[in-house]
Design a protein that fits this description.
This protein is α+β, with helices and mostly antiparallel strands and 347 residues long. It is built from 11 helices and 8 strands.
């Protein structure tokens, strides 16, 4: 397995039969959670065990570079609050009144990306609280993964209205993330936002399942507590591995009461170069954030059951599927094939 630079990706598409739009992948996923919602470090250690036992679901090169692995956890507010206070002498807002996420940057354009992110935040009526430098251990990486290792930072964002108008805060966070993707790519500035949320955070990278927790020091701290952990081990099959793809554009004529004239700023809905699962995530998030659909409604629209000849289905559910079929075609990629195995019963 070889991890390619942007120049090598372009050459591969130009000189070989590989086409980025035809890429597909297959992965291993699992999650651990506290039904009572109690955050502990034990949840994270059990997630680590699960991930490392899914090594057969990922891929590994001869140099021990993986196709990718990651974990999504609830924001460990107390852990971040204490660390930011100690390092920057800054008091984070209360949990839920700020958003945070890990960002992959390039050493050469780091300052430019940081300034641009701040400008875009202000344009979206948000404010950057601080940037946090994470402790990482590159020695555990494979040789190829180390060649493309990004500069990794964590950003904290808030707004004066975060407490009084949380819905507006969430809308503008989504707008900021989409604007970062669109504007940074136009400026050819590397800036990949792993996540930007008020409730969860994603740690990921070009790892084998056993390298994720060895790389990020945060994940080994006893004070890092979460009530949920969703782990992911990537098997890229006929896709090229990359740091951005480690964890999982049809605008037409659309309107959104939530975003109004700002809807254009959310385009492209599907970000260029994404895997099928990444594209699915883009569209699902768009339907929920801009389309005001609940998560079950959006999922049922994108991955409908075989409803047309199901005599036992309720008339209300059948009517919903008939309406949804007129809105968009069912998702037909590898994600669709996997999600068909999940029976969606909520209506």
């Amino acid at each position: 397995m070889v991890i390619l630079t942007d120049e090598q990706f372009a050459r591969a598409e130009r000189e070989t039969l590989w086409r980025s739009q035809l890429e597909r992948d297959a992965c291993g996923v699992g999650f651990v959670t506290s039904i009572q919602g109690i955050a502990t470090h034990k949840i994270l250690t059990e997630a680590r065990t699960m991930l490392e036992r899914m090594a057969h679901r990922g891929a590994c090169g001869c140099d021990d570079s993986g196709d990718g692995a990651g974990v999504l956890v609830a924001i460990p507010h107390d852990f971040y609050r204490e660390d930011v206070k100690k390092t920057d002498d800054i008091n984070l807002p209360q949990f839920g009144k700020y958003a945070t996420g890990i960002i992959f940057l390039n050493q050469d354009s780091y300052k430019q990306a940081k300034e641009a992110f701040g400008d875009l935040s202000r344009a979206c009526q948000l404010r950057v609280i601080t940037w946090r430098k994470l402790t990482t251990y590159a020695a555990c990486l494979g040789e190829e993964a180390r060649k493309t290792e990004p500069l990794i930072r964590q950003v904290f964002v808030t707004a004066d209205y975060a407490e009084t108008d949380p819905a507006r805060f969430e809308r503008n966070l989504y707008l900021l993330r989409k604007q970062v993707v669109s504007n940074m790519s136009k400026q050819r500035v590397e800036c990949y936002v792993c996540s930007l949320s008020t409730s969860t955070i994603v740690y990921k990278g070009q790892f084998t399942p056993r390298q994720l927790f060895a790389y990020y020091d945060d994940l080994n701290q006893k004070s890092f507590a979460t009530h949920i952990a969703l782990v992911h081990s990537r098997f890229s099959t006929n896709t090229f591995p990359s740091w951005n793809r480690a964890q999982p554009n049809r605008e037409g004529v659309m309107k959104s009461k939530q975003y109004g004239d700002d809807l254009d700023k959310l385009y492209p809905v599907v970000e260029e170069g994404n895997t099928d699962s990444g594209c699915f995530d883009n569209v699902l998030e768009f339907l929920v954030k801009a389309g005001q659909r609940t998560l079950p409604e959006a999922a049922m629209m994108m991955v409908p059951e075989a409803w047309e000849k199901d005599d036992d289905m309720s008339p209300e559910k059948r009517a919903y599927y008939r309406w949804a079929a007129m809105q968009m075609e069912p998702w037909d990629g590898p994600v669709y094939e996997q999600l068909l195995r999940v029976e969606i019963t909520h209506m």
